[in-house]
Structures are given as C-alpha cells and as structure tokens.
Amino acid sequence: MEFEFLGASLINLTINLVYTIVALFVGIKALIVVDERLLKGINIQEEIKNGNIAVSLFASSILVFVALIVIFGFKA
Questions:
Q1: Which residues contact 69 (CB under 8 A, 6 or more apart)?
Q2: For residue range 10-69, what is the model confidence (pLDDT) as tens digits?
C-alpha cells in the first residue's frame, strides 16, 4: 500500500515538475517578446547602472513573475 502511494507521489511530482519547466519557458519567452516590442531602444543593464529606479522596478517585476510561475507549478 505504501509503495502505491510513493509511486503516485513520484508521478505527481514529475508531472508538476514538467508543467513548471514548460510554464517557465513559455513565460520567459513571452516576457522576452514583450520586452523586445515595448523597450526597443532601452538597454536595461545600462539604465540600472545609471541609477534608473523605474527600470530596476520593471526588471524586478519580471523576476517576481518568473518566481510566481515556479511557485504555482509546484503548488498543484
């Protein structure tokens, strides 16, 4: 009985892991497309070095979005 539960748990973990990885790649690709279309002439790294706080907030929101994708992938 315990082996069946362990097997089901491993299958569930594998499904969640695959979902998380796929969602992460799709989310990152979507963010790259949005970044390329909205911020054509802006170099984020240079703007952060120059002290532009708005660009820093935008970059951190991207990281929070990626973290949310990972969290919801393992939550199911």
A1: 20, 23, 24, 27
A2: 888 898 888 888 888 887 887 778 777 877 888 888 888 999 898 888 888 888 887 887
Helices vs strands, H then E, count in the chain: 3, 0
Q: What is the pTM of this model?
A: 0.60
For residue 62, give both structure tokens: 């991207």
Whether 68 contacts 10, CB under 8 Å: no
Nearest to 76 by CA among 32, 8, 17: 17
Domain count for the chain: 1
| Assigned token pair, 3 | 């082996």
